[in-house]
């Protein structure tokens, strides 16, 4: 069965960076894109970007360009998302979600809470 | 960027009733690239319907969608207790991928 298992909660200070992981299993890792979506407390869903695990190409929302880096390790079927220059507004639950060209997000990780506070 | 506006923000209904949730896009999108998700407290979103009325695995047929162009609707024909949650629409045909702000479906 398809599973996306994310790394544990993080607490960071303003200005720091955070690197989250999402380990995929139960399917061919390189056959689907992986997206990152975040949700601030009590708020809606916000798409951050995606990575194609096959070649490593990425695309991100303009809001996060220059601040987000998405990478993958095909040997461990893991994708990573690093967000830099954190501010309090980055406090959120971060989800990875499997998708593909022309397909929505059919499997989601359990989410990782990132708290940014001085 | 395609902005999706969902209405109402909150709807209060009783089990057994019919729910109609709306999603309006700022520009025309293909129904092939419109999806609906359900999210319960403390859980990740779950895909319900996508690509012009395709239900995701395990989704009961009381969930259906309709619409075209800029106006889309998610209908739950007969509410079950487990259906009370927040629902989001999403367009995934144009970058950036965007979500509506959500409709909270609460028990009356």
Unreliable runs of chain A: none
Percent in strands of chain B: over 45%
State the helix count of chain A.
0
Order of helices and strands of chain A: EEEEEEEEEEE
- Specify the biggest β-sheet of chain A: 7 strands, mixed
Helix % of chain B is under 10%
Query: How would you classify the helix and strand content of chain A by structural class?
Result: mainly beta
Radius of gyration of chain A: 13 Å
Shape of chain A: globular
Rounded to the nearest angstrom, the radius of gyration of chain B is: 13 Å
Features:
heterodimer; A: 118 residues; mainly beta; seven-stranded mixed β-sheet; four-stranded antiparallel β-sheet; 11 strands; B: 108 residues; three-stranded antiparallel β-sheet; 10 strands; globular
Describe the structure.
The complex is a heterodimer of chains A (118) and B (108). In chain A, a hairpin with a 2-residue loop joins strand 9 (92-100) and strand 10. Helices cover 0% and strands 53% of the residues of chain A. In chain A, strands 2, 4, 5, 6, 9, 10 and 11 form a seven-stranded mixed sheet that branches. Chain A is built from no helices and eleven strands. With 118 residues, chain A is mainly beta. Chain B has 108 residues and is mainly β. Chain B is 0% helix and 55% strand. In chain B, strand 4 (34-39) and strand 5 (46-50) form a beta hairpin. Chain B is globular. The relative contact order of chain B is 0.34. The A-B interface holds A 35, 44-47, 50, 59, 61-62, 95, 97, 99, 102-106, 108-111 and B 32-33, 35, 37, 39, 44-47, 50-51, 56-57, 88, 90, 92-93, 95-102.
